[in-house]
Amino acid sequence: MIRVICVRTGDKYSQWYEDNLKHMIDKYSGLEYDSFEVIRDNEYELQVFNKLQMFDRYRDGTNIYFDLDVLIKGNCNQFLRDELTVCSAWWRDTWHTPLNSSIISWSGDRSDVYDEFASDPEYYMFKYSKGMDQYLYEIKNPNTFVEGFCSFQTVTESSDEFDVYLFNQRYEYMKQSGWWSSYFLT
Predict the structure, then answer these.
(1) How many domains does the chain have?
(2) All residues at 6 or more sequence positions from 82 whose CB lies less than 8 Å from its CB, including other chains
(3) For the chain, where are the E strands, in sequence order?
């Protein structure tokens, strides 16, 4: 069983981003999945931590999570993993964490990722003020993807080298006209 997951809480992302992600998954990713799940429960004040709910909800099968601000233009089967795996954030300055949680994959029960945070969410949100990436890096030390994706912050031209572009908080660009537009819903 393969499950595709995304999170849309708050009002930052409209329905278009959710529909667009599903469109790209269905048309370009090559993933043959059994369910497409959207978490909408706004459980935490710092919304980035709402992603953690997926580890509590989905405790079986193979799971792959995508942020809503990604461009998928090719094979995503390369990101399916048994061990908890996130993106290596090779484009970031060293003051930040070396991880990026725009793509996450794991198989089986990883509720421990959620349970530890949920035991004292105020503490963890304060301690890991840089967000979920910092929490994952310092607490769970996951494996990393190093190929097949890039950050739109550093690679703005289309390249066959990358199947996924992470827009990393530049989600407004996704609705502007550019080479990427042909992959999105109109």
Answers:
(1) 1
(2) 62, 106, 107, 108
(3) 2-7, 35-39, 62-66, 70-72, 85-88, 99-107, 143-145, 149-151, 164-166
Residue entry with tokens 């066959």: 160
pLDDT digits (tens, 9 = 90+) for 16-39: 999 999 999 999 999 999 999 999
Name the one residue in this structure whose structure tokens are 């090779």: 90
- Among residues 97, 169, 94, which one has the least CA distance to residue 127? 97
CB contact at 8 A, 151 and 128: no
- Backbone phi and psi for residue 103, each to the nearest 5 degrees, phi listed first: -130, 130
Domain that holds residue 79: 2-183
Report the C-alpha gap between 153 and 166 in whole angstroms.
8
Res 95: pLDDT: 63
Residue 56: CATH number of its domain: 3.90.550.10
pLDDT greater than 90 at residue 110: yes
Task: Name the strand (E) or helix (H) holding 116.
Answer: helix 111-118
Helix (H) or strand (E) holding 54: helix 53-57
The set of residues, in sequence order, having a beta carbon less than 8 Å from that of 65 and lying 6+ positions away, is: 4, 5, 6, 7, 51, 54, 101, 103, 104, 105
